[in-house]
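Thread amino acids onto this structure.
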């Protein structure tokens, strides 16, 4: 049907817009995470050391599962509170592998945050420095689907026709204010908007992204329950995205909740703390945008572990904001 073919063509165009390298004005978008309330270091270096613990997380996202060439993202991140030359600080590391169609992007950055104690909370003033590697497989194609539509290798002369890779220097910064009741963060990634150039006609650049995040802990009538609403706003000035989340936590060990990504998805959140700071979480995105017409959904899993640096190693660590 013409409507169906238009929809598939729209997807191919959408995929190309996210990964295309053939024109100078093309840009790379940061990967999307549903469990953003559990993984803040990826967008805000000011968060490093905010929990006064040694934290590690492995997160795996499968976006639009079943779609050929859909985004797949794998994250390893760790941060810790430290004292550097007498200054309360935090350090962190992010390693992100993000694959989308014929492009694979790997980010490795280190994070530092100076922590200033204020009367209403702790302010982390952070910066991130690292490398952004982009590799292109010019022979990749979208296999023929039920509608007989596919992308031939070499169909865009601006895409390198051989497998190639380039590296760029990447800079970010952020502020993160937190207390035992709330958090608020403001940050920017790709401040230097580095250019990734393969030749005179094939280039890309990292567009600057701005983030605003916040959350609050609400004690309920039953002391075993707590409501933890939060939000994450992202923009590259040309467009924007807003996630609004709410988790209901029972006994500081079990959580479940809902999230809504404006004009994109309704999301189910769930997870549990197993023992001594080991947590497992899962989210399911039911896509409500036009691309969801084809029945695709997104899944995200994470495993995290935290050791409270101020307590005995065998004692359970519980975050003051999120499990």
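Threaded sequence (323 positions):
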């Amino acid at each position: 049907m013409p409507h169906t073919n238009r929809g598939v063509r729209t997807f191919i165009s959408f995929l190309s817009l996210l990964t295309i390298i053939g024109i100078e004005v093309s840009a790379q978008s940061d990967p999307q995470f549903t469990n953003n309330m559990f993984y803040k270091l990826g967008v805000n270096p000011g968060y490093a050391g905010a929990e006064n613990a040694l934290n590690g997380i492995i997160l795996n996202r499968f976006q639009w599962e079943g779609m050929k060439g859909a985004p797949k993202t794998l994250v390893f991140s760790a941060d810790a509170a430290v004292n550097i030359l007498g200054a309360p600080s935090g350090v962190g590391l992010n390693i992100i592998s993000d694959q989308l169609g014929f492009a694979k992007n790997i980010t490795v950055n280190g994070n530092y945050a100076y922590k200033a104690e204020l009367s209403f909370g702790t302010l982390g003033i952070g910066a991130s420095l690292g490398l952004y590697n982009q590799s292109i497989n010019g022979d990749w194609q979208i296999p023929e689907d039920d509608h007989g539509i596919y992308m031939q290798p070499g169909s865009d002369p601006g895409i390198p026709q051989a497998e190639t890779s380039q590296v760029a220097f990447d800079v970010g910064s952020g502020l993160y204010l937190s207390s035992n009741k709330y958090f608020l963060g403001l940050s920017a990634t790709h401040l230097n908007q580095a250019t990734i150039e393969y030749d005179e006609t094939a280039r890309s650049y990292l567009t600057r992204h701005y983030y605003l995040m916040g959350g609050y802990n609400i004690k309920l009538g039953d002391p075993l329950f707590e409501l933890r609403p939060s939000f994450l706003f992202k923009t590259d000035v040309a467009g924007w995205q807003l996630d609004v989340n709410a988790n209901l936590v029972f006994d500081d060990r079990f959580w479940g909740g809902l999230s809504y990504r404006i004009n994109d998805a309704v999301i189910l959140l769930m997870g549990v703390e197993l023992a001594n700071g080991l947590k497992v979480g899962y989210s399911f995105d039911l896509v409500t945008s036009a691309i969801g017409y084809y029945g695709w959904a997104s899944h995200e899993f994470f495993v995290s572990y935290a050791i409270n640096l101020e307590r005995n190693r065998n004692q359970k660590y519980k975050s003051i904001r999120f499990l």
